[in-house]
Amino acid sequence: MRIRIVDAFTDRPFSGNPAGVVLLDAFPDDHWLQKVAAEVNLSETAFAHPLPPGGEADWALRWLTPVAEVDMCGHATLATAHVLHTTGRATGTVRFTARCGILSATAAEDGSLTLDFPTSPLTPVPVPDGLASALGCDIVGVHDTAAHIGDLLVELPDERSVRSLAPDFAALASMADRGVITTAAAEDPERGYDFVSRCFFPALGIDEDPVTGSAHTALAPFWSARLGRKELTGLQGGARTGLVRTALRGERTLLTGNAVTVIEGDLLV
């Protein structure tokens, strides 16, 4: 059984967000999936198997962190689509059925992939007690995405504030159902991105996720409303960074990026 490590939302190895990808004939028991995800020890490992032709989806897809299964994951979906296209298992648009519904990934001639994900609704909420202390930073405002991805979206004063964060991860773990998205407008949009973000998911065993596709289903409507454009580019990450191009389409958000396979080998158990 082949297993691959793919850097997603980047066109260069050793950047973006690495994901494990395992293609199966069918899903084995949950315990095995969780053991493999823990062994890979990346923010997510994707497991997928083909479905009979003629249905609403082509592949069944699941994502697991080292400690839990998640409802939505963008970078591991991009990584899976990359593996399917580069190995000849798929062409054009691939449809996935997952916990969050039907998703798709479409390959372009330039090698990029565009994911079609549901847009996350945003609800303004008061700043939770202890959040500013846990982040170590002033907060402009907070929105809740609990109805969808289960994150708090936290606007910070500026790009420098986002880049310099050194959070108290133990304190952040209790702040949201899934995690905390921090964001600010780009200091200089001429650098090729419109906003920056960093994402923290200590409750899922992931202190910081380098490039989080699912977070951009909330970041896209947030920044589109403020910047007055439906198509934007986000830069995410601390030590590792990646770019996500977003296009807001009402109840759907398109996420475009590249991916690079960096490791391929055999899973022996």
From TrEMBL:
The active site is at 44. One of its GO terms (molecular function) is isomerase activity. One of its GO terms (cellular component) is cytoplasm. InterPro entries: Phenazine_PhzF-like. Keywords: Isomerase. It comes from the Bacteria. SUPFAM superfamilies: Diaminopimelate epimerase-like. Belongs to the PhzF family. NCBIfam families: PhzF_family (TIGR00654). This is Oxidoreductase. It comes from Streptomyces lavendofoliae. The lineage of its organism: Bacteria, Bacillati, Actinomycetota, Actinomycetes, Kitasatosporales.
